[in-house]
Amino acid sequence: QVQLVESGGGLAPAGGSLRLSCAASRLTFGPYNMGWFRQAPGKEREFVATIGRNGGRTHYASSVKGRFAISRDNAKNTVYLQMNSLKPEDTAVYYCAAAITYGSRSELYGYWGQGTQVTVSS
Questions:
Q1: Bridge pairing between strands 92-99 and 33-39
Q2: In this structure, are residues 27 and 77 in contact, taking their beta carbons and an 8 Å threshold?
Q3: CA proximity to 55, closest of 84, 23, 36, 79
Q4: Which of 8, 17, 109, 121 could form an S-S bond across to 97 if both were Cys, CB 3.0 to 4.6 Å?
Q5: What is the pLDDT of residue 26?
Q6: Going by C-beta distance under 8 Å and a sequence separation of 6 or more, which residues neighbour residue 25?
């Protein structure tokens, strides 16, 4: 069974940084595009960032562009999300996901992790 396990969440002050990791197991990582999504309390899950199979393509939600950076290490079966200049509105559970087709729509992603909580204090 495919597993995606996120780590690196926690509490950060506004203006601070966190780096999320997502390790994949039982998944041939290379063929998959990887994405990060988030869900804040009382809100729908939203797209954050995605990266293509070899890392050559990336796309970000406008709310995080210029502050967050997605990257991947195919040798380690891991995708990362570097989050800088954090804002209280970034508070959410962050999920990584894997998709065969590149894109930002959650319906494209067939595999999901359990999520990691990110809380940004004002």
A1: antiparallel
A2: yes
A3: 79
A4: 109
A5: 87
A6: 2, 3, 5, 77
